[in-house]
Design goal:
heterodimer, A: about 350 residues, mainly alpha, two-stranded antiparallel sheet, two-stranded antiparallel ribbon, 17 helices, 4 strands, elongated, B: about 280 residues, three-stranded antiparallel β-sheet, 11 helices, 3 strands
């Protein structure tokens, strides 16, 4: 009897311990406040007064694979102070200080540094910008979705094998996260492929009407088209991962420091060109850097390039067509000599020559 | 014929090499012709002909829509995951007029109510009770007479704490009228062609005509859906256990367990707040 009661008590206590552990350690660390209770569903959303659809879903699995996965919702959405919250009118300020303190750092994390660089760049909104420019200039969210962690190619770094070596000394949980964090950024300059970078920049810069409104230079108006004409543009279009995209030349490793080319801070300022080209072309000299990366090919703008282009085209088409012509003539002559296309009985000289016999 | 030079054959290798060169040259030639005539990179000599015989249907509206869609992607910082939808022919009529997001009016709950349409048919909350029948709820799948689950949101993945991803994306909780032993679906009659026609011409109808059509589709439909508390309660109208919900999931649904929220937020009024819209509150 007594033992049975003891047993019951033990089971009861165990039950409580399990329950406390269960509740105390929610598996999704970033969502301590359980915002995903509602936001995980695909149909949390509404249609607003203007007929625009808003979808407020935050997919659990995607978020947990994103670079922000350990940032709590309210570190960014600071304006949510009660539940259920009112319709949101504020935008997230990407310069907010998160409650996450990165390793090796004394301060809590913030994007402020890169935002300062960005605000100073050609894309940052300046007080004397026209209203159109203010509206058209992209802010963080235009280019950046919540990026998902990607691995560098296993050919370059065998992910699991290298990680296994870290585990010899470090605890799996922390170091796996740190390792993913770093390998995600082991790229030339950007995590995005050159194709994605070109596509992203082209979204606005290809829009000649918009660019005219923003009063970009004559060269800037056609920047995408002229880039696409060059070797850089063509090899990116053909899938190259090594070729220079927009960011490769227009920004330093800070990536956000894009300036007009007459600004001495610009990577494409005339005095900085050598340094910029040297990133890939190790044999650069002062002649090399003068080659136009956005060449104008129209006759009125650049007669020399135009004529050279025509010349090269003639050389290519001419030589291929001559070669094919030669083959045709040769075949014609041989046929006249009585040569057939197929070997039969050990010879192709089976026909009768149509040429008059030689004397 | 004496004196005629001997007709000697090339060695076989010469034929082979000649053949390879001929193929290479012709491939390059074809490339050049392609470049000259239709490629985007060349002078497109054949473009006028192509435009004449195969006119491309360029719709400025479609292009603009596509452009806007691309920009829309930039608005969604968090990745929106495509959720499979029933094909247009299978969707309940309610969606034709009310769209995916039917609730728009009550600011506090509209998004939350829309969220429930992923796993409830509209009638689950909106059907009028009948005096001679009890309502029971079951999972219903238009493609499967007797869906076995597991169903959406019925259990957690113990490792991640996320809802378990399920293969069955179309089953929804559906009310049935129980009359004796008979179960009769409470899903309303579907006259999809009429509903679609209504959407097309609704701007031409007078308010009275509109009401007429509306009444046709809302015969047993309540204006206000069920209260939160009818379901999110210990003894609610849903038998969670029988519907396949796991125990820890039931606990959360019954309490609408918002762990950290309780202490951290200034005000906490889930779910009683929703019993009446704000305007009707004293």
């Amino acid at each position: 009897m007594k033992s049975q009661r003891k047993m019951k008590a033990a089971v009861f206590c165990l039950g409580w311990i399990v329950a406390i552990l269960w509740l105390g350690f929610p598996a999704v660390a970033a969502d301590k406040e359980n915002c995903l209770m509602c936001h995980k569903y695909p149909f949390v959303g509404r249609i607003d007064e203007n007929g625009k659809r808003h979808n407020y879903q935050v997919d659990e699995a995607s978020y947990n694979h994103s670079v922000h996965r350990s940032v709590a919702c309210r570190d960014c959405h600071t304006y949510i102070t009660k539940i259920p919250h009112d319709p949101v009118t504020e935008e997230v300020n990407c310069a907010n200080v998160c409650h996450t303190k990165p390793p090796f750092a004394q301060e809590k994390f913030s994007h402020q540094k890169i935002i300062d660089i960005y605000n100073d760049s050609a894309h940052g909104i300046k007080p004397d910008d026209s209203p159109e420019a203010k509206k058209a200039k992209p802010y963080c969210k235009f280019c950046h979705l919540n990026p998902l962690y990607t691995r560098v190619s296993e050919k370059v770094i065998a992910f699991d094998e290298t990680l296994r070596r870290c585990l010899n000394c470090h605890q799996a949980k922390g170091v796996t996260q740190a390792y993913i964090h770093m390998t995600h950024r082991l790229r030339k300059k950007t995590t995005r492929s050159p194709q994605e970078v070109v596509q992203l920049c082209a979204k606005c810069h290809q829009d000649v009407e918009l660019m005219q409104k923003l009063k970009v230079s004559e060269e800037g108006l056609t920047a995408v088209a002229t880039y696409n004409h060059t070797l850089h543009g063509k090899s990116v279009a053909l899938g190259s991962q090594e070729t220079a995209d927009c960011i490769s030349c227009h920004a330093s490793f800070a990536i956000h420091d894009i300036y007009r080319k007459d600004n001495p801070k610009a990577t494409v300022y005339k005095d900085n060109l050598m340094q910029t080209c040297l990133q890939c072309h190790t044999e650069t000299n002062s002649w090399f850097v003068q080659i136009a990366v956005h060449p104008r090919t129209k006759r009125e703008e650049n007669p020399l390039i135009y004529m050279a282009g025509i010349g090269l085209r003639f050389a290519l088409y001419g030589s291929v067509c001559s070669l094919v012509g030669l083959m045709l003539l040769e075949t014609y002559g041989r046929r006249k000599d009585g040569i057939k296309f197929l070997l039969r009985r050990g010879t192709s000289w089976r026909g009768k020559s149509k040429r008059p016999p030689r004397k | 014929m004496p004196g005629e030079p001997k007709k000697q054959n090339h060695p076989i290798a010469a034929f082979l090499i000649g053949f390879i060169f001929a193929v290479l040259t012709l491939v390059v030639f074809a490339g050049v012709i392609h470049h000259l005539t239709i490629s985007h990179h060349g002078p497109q000599l054949l473009k006028p002909l192509k435009d004449k015989f195969f006119p491309e249907h360029k719709s400025p509206i479609l292009e603009e829509a596509k452009r806007l869609e691309e920009f829309e992607i930039h608005r969604h910082f968090h990745h929106i995951v495509e959720y499979p939808q029933l094909p247009e022919s299978e969707r309940p009529v309610c969606f034709i007029c009310h769209s995916d997001f039917p609730h728009t009016k009550n600011k506090k709950v509209r998004s939350l109510l829309n969220m429930h349409t992923q796993y409830f048919v509209c009638e689950a909350c909106h059907i009028k009770e009948q005096t001679d029948a009890r309502i029971v709820y079951k999972w219903y799948n238009p493609y499967d007479d007797n869906p076995q689950g597991p169903f959406i949101g019925t259990s957690y993945d113990p490792e991640t704490g996320n809802l378990v991803d399920v293969a069955d994306k179309f089953s929804k909780l559906t009310p049935f009228f129980q009359k004796g032993d008979e179960l009769e679906s409470a899903i309303q009659k579907q006259d999809a062609p009429l509903a679609r026609d209504y959407v097309k011409i609704r701007d031409k109808l007078t308010p009275e005509q509109r009401d007429g059509v509306k009444n046709k589709f809302h015969v047993s439909i309540k204006e206000k859906g069920d209260d939160c508390k009818l379901c999110h309660a210990e003894k609610g109208i849903l038998d969670f256990k029988k519907l396949g919900f796991a125990d820890n999931r039931i606990e959360d649904l019954v309490q609408l367990n918002v762990k950290g929220m309780l202490t951290k937020y200034e005000v906490f009024y889930l779910p009683d707040l929703f019993l009446a819209p704000e305007s009707e509150k004293p």
